[in-house]
C-alpha cells in the first residue's frame, strides 16, 4: 500500500499525500468523492469568463476578505478556494515532501477533469472517468476495476486514490476542520517560482485534520483572487510525520497532460 499511496498528491489534500506516502495505513475509499461535477464546473467557468483567468469571480468568495487581522470561517474559506480553482480552469502544482517525494501535477477542467502527475519514476494520468499509470519497465497500464491482472489492479487503486485526493471538495472539507482562520497579512511566498510575489498568509485558529490525518503548522498563501500560491504544513498519523509543501503556478494557462493512448 505504501507504493500506491506515494503517488497520490494531486491537487487537493495538500499535506496528506506526503504523510501517507510513508504510512502503512489503508487508503480511504473513493465512495462518492470525485472530480467536480460537469454542472458545477460549467457554472464556475461561466463566472470566470467575465473576469478573465487571473480574476475568477466566484460567489463562494464573497465572505472571504483578504485583509490583515480579519477572521474567516473555515467552511467559507474551503468553499471559496475550491470554487476559485475550478473556475480558473487549469494550473500546475509542485508537491515536495520531507519523505523525499517530489511531484509535478498538471490539471485542467474543460469541462471533463484531467490531470497528470510526474514523479520521475512513475507517472499517473486521469482523463474523465478513466486513468493510466506508467510503471517502470511496463509502460502505461490502464485502470479497469473488472480486471484481475495484478498490474491493472494496482493501476486502478492508484487512479482511484488520485481521483479522491484531487477533488476540490476534499480540500474544502480539510480547511473547514479549523472553525476559523486568521489573515496574517501580505507576505512573500517562501519559494522563488510561485506565480506571485505577494500573497495573503492565512493560518488556522484551531487544530486541523485532513482525511483523518492531524495537521499542524499549516500556512496557506492566497493570491488576491483567492487562488493558492503556496501551502505548507506537517501531517502526523500513526507515529509518522511528514512536512509537505505545495507551490502553484500557471493558473489559467496552458498545461501539458500526457496522452497515454498516443504512446
UniProtKB/TrEMBL annotation:
Protein name: Uncharacterized protein
UniProt signal peptide: 1-26
Keywords: Signal
Gene3D superfamilies: 2.50.20.20
Species: Myceligenerans indicum
Keyword Signal: yes
Residue spans of biased composition, Low complexity class: 36-51
Source taxonomy: Bacteria, Bacillati, Actinomycetota, Actinomycetes, Micrococcales
Top-level taxon in the UniProt lineage: Bacteria
Region (Disordered): 32-58
Amino acid at each position: 500500500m505504501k507504493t500506491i499511496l506515494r503517488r497520490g498528491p494531486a491537487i487537493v489534500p495538500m499535506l496528506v499525500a506526503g504523510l501517507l506516502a510513508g504510512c502503512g495505513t489503508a487508503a480511504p475509499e473513493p465512495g462518492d468523492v470525485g472530480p467536480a461535477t460537469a454542472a458545477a464546473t460549467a457554472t464556475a467557468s461561466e463566472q470566470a469568463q467575465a473576469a478573465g483567468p487571473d480574476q475568477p469571480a466566484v460567489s463562494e468568495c464573497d465572505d472571504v476578505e483578504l485583509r490583515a487581522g480579519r477572521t474567516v470561517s473555515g467552511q467559507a474559506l474551503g468553499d471559496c478556494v475550491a470554487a476559485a480553482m475550478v473556475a480558473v480552469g487549469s494550473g500546475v502544482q509542485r508537491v515536495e515532501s520531507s519523505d523525499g517525494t517530489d511531484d509535478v501535477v498538471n490539471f485542467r477542467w474543460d469541462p471533463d477533469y484531467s490531470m497528470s502527475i510526474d514523479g520521475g519514476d512513475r507517472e499517473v494520468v486521469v482523463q474523465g472517468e478513466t486513468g493510466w499509470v506508467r510503471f517502470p519497465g511496463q509502460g502505461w497500464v490502464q485502470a479497469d476495476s473488472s480486471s484481475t491482472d495484478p498490474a491493472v489492479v494496482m493501476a486502478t487503486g492508484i487512479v482511484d486514490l488520485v481521483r479522491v485526493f484531487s477533488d476540490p471538495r476534499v480540500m474544502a472539507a480539510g480547511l473547514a476542520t479549523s472553525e476559523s482562520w486568521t489573515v496574517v497579512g501580505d507576505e512573500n511566498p517562501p519559494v522563488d517560482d510561485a506565480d506571485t510575489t505577494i500573497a495573503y498568509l492565512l493560518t488556522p485558529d484551531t487544530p486541523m485534520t485532513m482525511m483523518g490525518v492531524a495537521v499542524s503548522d499549516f500556512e496557506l498563501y492566497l493570491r488576491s483572487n483567492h487562488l493558492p500560491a503556496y501551502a505548507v504544513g506537517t501531517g502526523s498519523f500513526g507515529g509518522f510525520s511528514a512536512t509537505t509543501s505545495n507551490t502553484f503556478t500557471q493558473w489559467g494557462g496552458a498545461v501539458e497532460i500526457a496522452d497515454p493512448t498516443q504512446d
